[in-house]
Specification:
344 residues, alpha+beta, Transferase Creatine Kinase, Chain A, domain 1, Creatine Kinase, Chain A, domain 2, 8-stranded antiparallel sheet, two-stranded antiparallel sheet, 12 helices, 10 strands, binds adenosine-5'-diphosphate, binds D-arginine
Length: 344
């Protein structure tokens, strides 16, 4: 790994490039955390992938302190969250003021709400060893084997999963894609597929990814727009799992994650929604999603393009807002999008 100041291409617009000064680089260049994660590893993804939006990953909780000269301004820039701010959690679905925004299923194909979690006492994905990843897998599998009722289900390790099953689960939006180049350069794909897998209940409305970008991605999803039911199921599952697994949590930054974009709630609440009229008025659609702090993705996950007027619409705010506010953001924005679609 080259330890000279990185060369950024003229069309690189990452927050890494924006905030990495020569002074910060010289100060942090030789820093290594207790789990052996180096500053150069932390910035590697943004150097290799010049089209990164952020470009940095944490290898453990200590990364957020030891590399603070760089991480803190990136977090402030991305989340609008300063060192004077403190994150608060609010996980109670009864506080959510929502109803199904599309009871006749004219627009919303499906609703999915996920949170990322990592295990207190372990490094994060970019610095975890093969052995630690297997310990994490064992801990998570033991925790989900205690789930009862509608949350009970089966764990499927990626190792040994046949290609056809894996492809179908990805195509059906249940399983993560094999780590992309951003995760690869961050060291998150090391030893793939060892220690990775997916748990899901019988009807695939509750799923849990093990050792992808975060150590747990806890997911609730179902067809249609019953946002409150999806959120309630997720919160029940999270509190059940937390009875046997300590989650990595920071008083100021909330739930700690490998990518700073997921800090705080680590929540993405999304709908797959068909908006054919707004699809040809993309500027107007963007005005509405910006107003409600929403993000637009394609329906095959991050970095995918929208398909035939169907979009993945989700909350853009994760840190400095509560879980209830994340879901409320998404709901309020979806109501506005459907209203405008009907007007058109
Ligand atoms: P993240 O887990 O960070 O939300 P992605 O955006 O890559 O990651 O989405 C992961 C998977 O979840 C993809 O297969 C995507 O199609 C699926 N997905 C996301 N939102 C929904 C939704 N509302 N309904 C159905 N599938 C969804
Ligand atoms: N691709 C990286 C991370 C962006 C946020 N998405 C995550 N964490 N999956 C980038 O810097 O663009």
């Amino acid at each position: 790994m080259d330890n000279s100041f990185p060369v950024f291409e003229s069309d690189c617009h990452s927050l890494l490039r924006r905030h990495l000064t020569r002074d910060i680089f010289d100060t942090l260049r030789d820093c290594i955390t207790g789990s052996g994660y180096t500053f150069l590893q932390a910035i590697q993804s943004g150097i290799v992938n010049q089209d990164s939006s952020i470009g940095v990953y944490a290898g453990d909780a200590e990364s957020y302190q030891l590399f603070s000269e760089l991480f803190t301004p990136i977090i402030a820039d991305y989340h609008g969250f300063s060192t004077a701010d403190t994150h608060l959690s609010h996980l109670d679905p009864s506080a959510l003021k929502v109803q199904n925004p599309d009871p006749e299923n004219r627009y919303i194909l499906s609703t999915r709400i996920r949170v990322g979690r990592n295990i207190d006492g372990m490094p994060l994905g970019p610095a975890v060893s093969r052995y630690q990843r297997r310990v994490i897998e064992e801990q998570v599998v033991a925790a989900v084997s205690n789930l009862t009722g509608k949350l009970s289900g089966t764990y499927f390790p990626l190792s040994g999963m046949d290609e056809e099953t894996q492809h179908r689960l990805i195509e059906d939006h249940f399983l993560f894609k094999e780590g992309d180049r951003f995760l690869d350069a961050a060291g998150l794909n090391r030893d793939w597929p060892d220690g990775r897998g997916i748990f899901h209940n019988t009807d695939k409305t509750f799923l849990l990814w093990v050792n992808e970008e975060d150590q747990l991605r806890i997911i609730s999803m179902q067809p249609g727009g019953d946002i409150k039911t999806v959120f309630s199921r997720l919160m029940t599952a999270v509190s059940e799992i937390e009875k046997s697994i300590p989650f990595l949590y920071d008083q100021r930054l909330g739930y700690l994650t490998s990518c700073p974009t997921n800090l705080g709630t680590a929540m993405r609440a999304s709908v797959h929604i068909r908006l054919p009229k707004l699809a040809v008025k993309r500027t107007e659609m963007k005005q509405i999603t910006d107003t409600y702090h929403l993000q637009i993705r394609g329906i095959h996950g991050e970095h995918s393009e929208d398909e035939s007027g169907i979009y993945d619409i989700s909350n853009g705010r994760r840190l400095g807002v509560t879980e209830v506010e994340c879901v409320q953001d998404m709901y309020d924005g979806v109501v506005a999008l459907i209203k405008r679609e009907e007007e058109l």
